[in-house]
Amino acid sequence: MTRYVSIGLFVTLVSAGTILYVMQTSSRIGTSDTYTVYAYVEDASGLIVDSVVRLAGVDVGRLEAIELDGSRARLTLRIRDNVQLYEDAVVAKATESILGSATVMLNPGGQGAMLRSGDEVRQVRQMANISEAVESANQLAMGAALLVEEFQAFMRDGETVDALNEIVAVARNTAIATSELLEQNLLIARSTLQNIEAFSVRLDGNAERQLLLVQEILESTAQLTARLDRLVGDNEASVTRSIREVETSLAELQVVLASLQGSVDNVQEITRVVRDGEGNVGKLIQDDELYTRAVRITEKAEDFLDSTVGLGVQVDFRSELLLDQVATKDRFDLRLTPVRGDRYYSVGVINTPVPSTTKTTTEEIITEEGSTTDTVTRTTERTDDLKLNLQLARIWGPLTVRAGVMESTAGIGLDVTPFRQLVLSGEVFDFGADDGVYIRGFGRLYPFYDPESSNPLQWLYFTGGVDDALDVYKRDFFLGAGVRFTDQDLRGLVGFIPLN
Q1: Residues 76, 82, 86, 91, CA torsion sign
Q2: Residue 412: phi, psi to the nearest 5?
């Protein structure tokens, strides 16, 4: 049996076994352990078919379809059997980002009968629309800008600023004069109280003597009253002048208020013009065609972002020990997975030990026999070579078919997943090699795999297999281990990395 017949027989057996397994299990892929309910919403913008359905932040199902039923959108939800919904269950559309992407949230309720497959969730909660909030904020910002512009124009008027400065100066002078007058009156009152206190002490100590001094005290009081009269008379003109200045300031303030009322009237007129759709600004706000164009541009941008941002990211690194060569083969892969999850794209590098042979020729001269002898020495050295992986993969249930560049040569690969903890793989590449194609078979075991678990070891796996299986001289067995992280795991790890 030739080598190519062996290769063909091997590929035929693997393909036949895989096709038989897929035919037996295809009817159960993605449909077991779930039931279907539906709900009607007024606005389904931001929702994506086959996106997750969450309950308390946990994935419990998928959005299977979005259909138009009259003027409302009908959402078909496929929910896991272990999640029970009741008659008072609530479906809500929650916006996940300012870009407008949304997801379906569930509240299972707890009253009434349990919902069965095909039932309707009648209670629907509609969240606020991001576009409406942005439109309201834009209108508010434009109104504030107009008001600030009018105030700046008002403050640029030199006469208005001078009037305000005069009012402030008059108020300051009035306050100073009043403070000085009050201070003088307080000093006089303090002196009076001290005199009364001394009079009381003397009256208690010697009543007769105090009675003799009453006349003197009354005279002193008369003199004090005269002094107060003189003080008030001296300051009367200043007080009158201050009152007149205040009256003048009030008159000027009325003029300023009249000017301000005119500015308010101008603002109201501008607001009316904008509201009626007159002028450039009014047409920009009131024109329905401009609004329709803006909405169309926003929807196109949203579709583009949904198709771009919806990629899941996985990072894979593993190291394999080649038992015969006693050398390691290290590989790093980056996998991009679309939202639908039926395909992925992989790019990576492999650091592999590549044997190379150096031929050395030595000429020896033997003089006794008169002839020469050529001695050929071959030396095999092992060097590290960096190779590229670039693959496209399509997934059909437990079967994954890969094609692209494998170790810098064209090749194809086949993965079979009997259950989620085990993956069996075969790869065929380097078809133009002189010593035959390169066949590699191996398996990967995920002993702790559970996407819903918080176990940090869930993405650790072990691998083992045979390398270059058809070449009896280069065939080698290997064992290894690796780790694989998703974008959710990477976001969790970034939070623990110090930035300073």
Answers
A1: negative
A2: -130, 155
Q: Which two tokens stand for residue 173?
A: 């002078």
Q: Which residue has the tokens 């992407």?
A: 101
Q: Give the 3-state DSSP-derived string for the chain, with helices as H, strands as E and coil as C.
A: CCHHHHHHHHHHHHHHHHHHHHHHHHHHCCCCCEEEEEEEECCCCCCCCCCEEEECCEEEEEEEEEEEECCEEEEEEEEECCCCCECCCEEEEEECCCCCCEEEEEECCCCCCECCCCCECCEEEECCCHHHHHHHHHHHHHHHHHHHHHHHHHHCCHHHHHHHHHHHHHHHHHHHHHHHHHHHHHHHHHHHHHHHHHHHHHHHHCHHHHHHHHHHHHHHHHHHHHHHHHHHHHHHHHHHHHHHHHHHHHHHHHHHHHHHHHHHHHHHHHHHHHHCCCHHHHHHHHCHHHHHHHHHHHHHHHHHHHHHHCCEEEEEEEEEEECCCCEEEEEEEEEEECCCCCEEEEEEEEEEEEEEEEEEEEEEEECCCCEEEEEEEEEEEEEEEEEEEEEEEEEECCEEEEEEEECCEEEEEEEEEEECCEEEEEEEECCCCCCCCEEEEEEEECCCCCCCCCCCCCCEEEEEEEECCCCCCCCEEEEEEEEEEEHHHHHHHHCCCCCC
Nearest-CA neighbor of 376 among 400, 359, 355, 392?
A: 359
The residue type found at 141 is: A
Residues in CB range of 291: below 8 A, 6 or more apart: none
Residue located via tokens 């008072």: 88
Q: Side chain identity at 281, as an amino acid letter?
A: V
Contact 426, 440 (CB under 8 A): yes
Q: How far apart are CA 266 and CA 274, in angstroms?
A: 12
Is residue 106 a contact partner of residue 89, using CB atoms and an 8 Å limit? yes
- Alpha-carbon distances, residue 62 vs 26, 47, 76 (angstroms): 19, 11, 9
| Amino acid making up residue 249 | S
Residue 350's pLDDT band (cuts 50, 70, 90): very high
State pLDDT tens for residues 354-411.
654 444 555 555 555 555 555 555 555 545 578 899 999 999 999 999 999 998 899 9
Computed over every residue of the chain, the mean pLDDT equals 78
CB atoms within 10 A of CB 275: 11
* Higher pLDDT pick, 497 / 36: 36
